[in-house]
Structure formats: C-alpha cells, structure tokens
Amino acid sequence: MDKKLKLTDDILLSVEKPARYLGNEINVVGKDINDIDIRFALCFPDVYEIGMSHVGLSILYDFLNKREDTFCERVFSPWDDLEKIMREKNIELFSLESQDDIKAFDFLGFTVQYEMSYTNILNTIDLSGMAVYSKDRSEDDPIVCAGGPCTYNPEPIADFIDFFYIGEAETTLSEILDLYKIHKNNGGTKEEFLIKLLDIEGVYVPKFYDVTYKENGEIKDFKPNHKNAKAKIKKQIVMDLTNAPYPSKPLVPLIQTVHDRVVLELFRGCARGCRFCQAGMIYRPLREKDVNVLKKQATELIKNTGHDEISLISLSSSDYTGLEELTNYLIDEFGNDKHVNLSLPSLRIDKFSLDIMSKVQELRKSSITFAPEAGSQRLRDVINKGITEEDILSGSSQAFKGGWTRVKLYFMLGLPTENYEDIEAIAKLGQDIVEEYYKLPKEVRKRKPQIVVSTSFFVPKAFTPFQWTAQDTYETFMEKQTFLNKKINKKSIKYNCHDAKTSMLEGVMARGDRKISKVIYSAWKNGATFDAWSEFFRFENWENAFEENDIDPLFYSSRERDFEEILPWDFIDTGVTKEFLYREYLRAKEGIVSENCIDSCMNCGAKSFGGGICYVD
Amino acid sequence: MLIRIKFAKEGTMKFIGHLDLIRNFQRVFKKAEFPIAYSEGFNPHPIMSIGAPLSVGITSEAEYLDVKIKEDIDINYQIKNLDLHAPEGIKILDITVLPEKAKSAMALIDAAKYKITVNNITITDDMINNLMSKNNIIITKKNKKNVLKEIDIKPGIFNIALGEDGDLLLLIATGSRMNVKPEIVLDNLCKVNDIEYNKFDFKIHRQEIYYISDNKFLPLDKIL
Ligand code: SF4
C-alpha cells in the first residue's frame, strides 16, 4: 500500500528533492500509534541531508525506538522552497515517519550542534503552529526539549525550551520518559511534569531559575526559584561505551546526503587537552569502545545498510589503542572483493597512519590534512596543540614520498595572545612544506604540489580554558586575514579565507546569557533562518536585532572576564572544574604546555565519573 | 555475463531520481550479496546501467537494469533475494540472462507505453483527433550545444488512444534514436484544444519499454 503523505504530489513535485519529506528510507521505524504511550519528534534543525549525516541523531533515534512504549520520529527544517509553500497554504510542520503534525506529539526534541542553527529552532517551533516562547505555549502543545554540545551553555535559547538534557542520552533520558508515561496516565499539567523532572540528574528546567544582573550587565545572581531545583546540573555520560546501545540497522536515505557511510565510534571524549576545543573538554573523560565489538558492528552494519564506506570517527583517532588491529581487520575483511572503502578522518599524520592511508585510499584523489591551528610554535604552545613544526614537516615529507601531492592545512586566526609574527608564521609554514616537496629527487616529483591553507576565526567557547578571553573584533579579524593574504605566496599555495561576521555572532551566542534570547527572537523575526548557509545568511537581520534590543554584542564576544565573574553556564557541572580551566588559562598565557591524559593526569576533575582513561595505567 | 533485471518503480519511489536510484541498487546488491562485477582500475565501480531513465514523478511497472555478474546465479532465488533487500516501492519482477552479444538496453530501446490518468479535465476522442490530424507537431528543443532546434515529434507518436476508463494510452518513441517525452505530447494535446496545460492533471505511469524488430514492438526482456 502506498504511504499516506502529508504533502500532495503537486507540492512534492514542485520542490527541490522531494525525498527529504517522505520518511520512506531503508530501516525506517514504523509503529502503530495505538500501541505506544509516548510520541517523540526528534529534530535536527537543518536540512535533511545534513541532519541525516549526523551519527548522534541515528544513535538517539535507535535508542528511543528501542523502547516499546515510545515512537521516535524525525523532523528536519524544510528547505526554503517548501517553507514558502507551507506558509502560503497554512500547512503545519510534520514528522517524516507518520507524517502527522508535530503538534500531535508529546515531545519535540532538538539536537543542537551549532549556534547558527538557533534561528532554525525557532522556525521549527513556529512552523509547527506553536508559540516560540515557552511561556506562551499551551498545555496541549508538545513539551519542547533540547540537548547536544551547544546546550552546555543553554542560556541563549533558555526562553524557547521547556527543559534541557545535559549530556549523553543513554543514561537518564529513559528516566524522563518513564516519568512522563506515569504523568500522562495520571493526568496533570505541564508545569507539574516539569517539577517532577527536577529530581532527575542532567535535567535543566530554565523556568525554575532566576537570573539577576548587575548594572554593568554581568550576572549578579543565578539561583533556583523552586525548592526542588538543583543548584548544579551534572552532565550525564555513558561510562561503558562497549555495552552501550548502538544502532545495528541505521536509516539509509534514498537520496545522497553529506555522508553516506557506516560509522564506527572508536571512543568518546579526547585525551588531548587543546585549550580552544570545547568537545575536548565537555566530553571528558575519554571512554573507549572495545575493538571486538567494533569489528562485529562493522560486519553487521555493512550487511544492514549496503554502504560502501566505513568511517572511523572520534576526536583523535590515532589515540585509539586498538587502531592498528581494527584497521588491519577491516582492510582484510572488506577491502578486496567486498569493495568497501575505509575512511579515517582525524588521524595524526605519521608513518603508521600514512601506511594505513596508502592501503585504503586512492592516492591520486586523496589529500593529507594537518590542523596545526597556529602558525608558530609559541602560539601552538599557548593553545596546547601537541604538534610540532618537526611533526608537520616530516609528516608532509613522508606523505610526498608516499605519493601524495595535496596537503591541506587548517589554522585559526585570533587565538589568544596572537601577534603578527604568529600570523606570518602561517605563511612561512605553508612555504616550508612546499620546500619539503622540492627536496625530493626530481624523478619522483611528477606533479606540482597543491598546498591549501584555510583559516577560520577563533570563537571562545564555554567550558574551555579560553572561556574568559576576549574574542577579536570583526575589524581585527579582517585586518589579520588581509595581512596573511598578502604574506602567502600564491604561486605555490592556495589560500581559503572567509568573512568573519558569522564567527563574531558565534562568539556572542557561545557565551551568551538569557538576554540573548531576545536577540535571537528578533533576528528570526527579521527573517533569519539557515544562518549556517552563506546563501541565506544576512548580517543585517542580526545587526538590527542587537539594536532593537539595545544589546552590545561586544559585551559578550570581545570582553575579557574575571575569574570571579559568574558565567552564564557556571551552574552546569561537566566534571571538569572551573579551577582546572582557569589554571590552564594562566598556563596558556605563559605558553606552558600541559600533558595529555595518556601521558599524565592534569587532575581536571573528570575522574569523578569513576572510569575511562582516568583509571587506565 | 550480462543480465537484465525487470523491476517496478512505484509509490514514493517515484520521487527518487535516476542517479539516486542507481545508488540504491548498488546498496541492494551489497546487502543481498549479489555477485555483481566491478570495473577494473583505480576506482572500481559496479557495472550496471538503466536503459531509459524515468523522470521524477512517473511510476512504472517495467523498468530495465542491465547488470554484469561475475558468476552464475539462481534466477528464481535472486529475484526473491533482491526484492527482499530493495526499498519499498521497488519490486523486482524478473531477471533475464542476455546472450553473449546482446545490445545494451540503452542501445536497444525504441519505444515506451504509458497509461495516463487524467484528473480535473476530460480528454475526448475529438481532442486526440485534433492533435493527430495535424501534418506535423513541431516543438523547439535545445540540442547538446545549447542551440534551439525545431523538431517534428509526430513521427514519434506511434499510438495515442483513450482507454475504457478514460485513461489516455500512449505509445511513443523513446531512446537514443528518437525520444519523445509524454509530458510534451500532453502539453501539445492541450495546446491544440485550447486547454491550459497543468502537468499535475496527469498521472503518468509507464507500462512497458519496447524495441522494434521486424516491425513488431517487443518488450525489452523478450530476447529473440
Ligand atoms: S582526570 Fe586526568 S586523566 Fe581524567 S580526564 Fe582529567 S586530566 Fe585526563
């Protein structure tokens, strides 16, 4: 029987990629609404092809649907062509699986991966036919919740979300659903349910907290206004990743997405301690998955999806203890007549990884990637990026000898303490790599090397040692970029540069407080959606939004904070202590490097989770 | 060895375009552990091709996919096996082993038959006569060099008639020698009868693809 679709054929055939809206993928979950208690609409607030490439979404979908009493369905942001039609014809946003209106659900849950999707969250709530501010929604509307890396500082979107879930879903999210089921059967108001939630670890209900501000705009006081509300919200993480549920039959889209591949998660967390990296801090401690489980999952996943690529993901794959064993196994098992490719992003470039890569990649097409982040050793020490010039030059040299001719280099402009010599060092490092190539004997140099330098702008993030630092202003960013652009020898190096406006906005959101909610609301009202897409991004929407609300963005982005200041996200406990972060900040300023968790423990506080790398000798 | 797989493309699969359909078949073959042959060289890819790609929005009960296999197969088993792994809306109907020197589907195809359900408007025999009594039906089309060219599509309309239930039946040229799209015929049918053409009034369904041999229309998997 044909699936009942929310959109008629004439609408579907007049929009780009109608398959975004069908919910007919391989391994899609279907449940009878009459047999379940909880309807959960899980939203990745961006276009289908982006959301479907995100492994976190797939894990959550699987996790929620493993519960017999729950039906989790997906929602994505409709592309602007469909949105226009929906608004014209008053069509409300719907889920892909049952094609029912979001309004019919118990929960609407967002996974928030980047700040520039905030306006899409508002747009999703609005397209669903609900009020955007939590306080204006009715009892009949779904409960709106959110999680994901951006929600470690939930404050900028606190006014739109009924509750946040801080951490990894596999722990107490189930308790929330159990509680909801009882609540739903017994009847009761939304408010009553939210009060009950206050007993569950990892849950943050913004309405039960009050914020007051000093005259200078800093937070004066942040405290619970309900007796059950916890003063600190502790992040939730899975300690036993090996036995954590993992989707064995993930969805396989019928249209091409950003990544169509099987994903194996080597570990969560990171041992490295780069001082700019939020993921490296909030997901501590590092927790590995057993190599034998990964082998089993690889076989199962290829069988159940038919994909022709396996990707090993983690924040720093070279640190995985079973990497050699795993890659050898995968190459033997899938390499030859099975025609499955292996991809290994985030590898450190050394002899071992070049060996693997030459086995699994077609040299002609692939390139070698380095992310030194800073051009000079001084600045790399400041950010604690444990990679030396020697590593980079010898790595490139080995890669050139191995037949690669393309090298990509990623840097950040505007890192704390950066000066113009550091920036010039970027150009120099690029040139030194070019020269490494010409050191090779002439007969091996078949092609001209292609060196690509890309820079992004540094955005200080909550829960990093740089959470106190001032971000460069837009003008400074652009001056620095222009300076670098002049220094780079364009004959041998290609330079990718950007506009800094988005980074400046990210700088505001990443460390924003509740007052920023109004700005996001105004920007959305002014027409901002899909801000992460340069074809849709319009800075005026935001400029006007700041003005309308009389808020100075520089107060958030380009202001150095004191250690004593109450930061908007202080009430969230990631395990990593504020004292450790500050210690790291002071060491950064002096250019003192810190050891990584593999070599020695810096006592960050994450030991309190009682497992992971902190307990490995 | 080359085989020709006959399949139907129905339901929501009609929204999936040609390239994505091919990608889906690649995954079906992998999941079904089907012994498809790969090309040689740096970047091996499974060897397969579709004769006459179907436009998005059109359903079909007779599509043909030519595939090279590396070992003998049990046809009855593989029909079921592939069907089991195919996405909902793709139905594997038949597999035919092609003789050694068979022409590819692409080179073979001459015509296709469509059944078109008409909504909101009524098409009558008179209307069809108005179109077919013309000496020629000229359309302008961009050629490969992006230059507009005039073409007479009348020789490409082999048959056009009303079915018992008011459906429109169309047998038109398809393939590399001459290609007439059903939408173009419908557009012209509306035009000669002073009706506004709205493509959503017509639900197009492909019933068969043919090649012509000895003046006879033979389905693509009927190998002589
Ligand atoms: S407690 Fe030590 S080993 Fe554990 S994450 Fe922190 S620094 Fe690393």
Automatic annotation (TrEMBL), chain A:
Q: Name one GO molecular function term.
A: catalytic activity
Output the InterPro entries linked to this UniProt entry.
Answer: CHP03960_rSAM (IPR023862), Elp3/MiaA/NifB-like_rSAM (IPR006638), Radical_SAM_N2 (IPR045784), rSAM (IPR007197), rSAM_horseshoe (IPR023404), rSAM_sf (IPR058240)
Looking up CDD domains in the UniProt record yields: Radical_SAM
Task: Tell me the ranges covered by the Radical SAM core domain, including all copies.
Answer: 256-491
Q: Which PANTHER family match?
A: RADICAL SAM DOMAIN PROTEIN, SLL1084 PROTEIN
This chain belongs to the protein called: TIGR03960 family B12-binding radical SAM protein
Starting at the broadest rank, the lineage of the source organism is: Bacteria, Bacillati, Bacillota, Clostridia, Lachnospirales
From TrEMBL, chain B:
Describe the location of the DUF2344 domain by residue ranges. Answer: 3-182
Q: What is this protein called?
A: DUF2344 domain-containing protein
What Pfam families has UniProt attached to this entry?
Answer: DUF2344 (PF10105)
- NCBIfam families xrefs: sam_1_link_chp
Q: Which InterPro entries match?
A: DUF2344
Report the superkingdom from the record: Bacteria
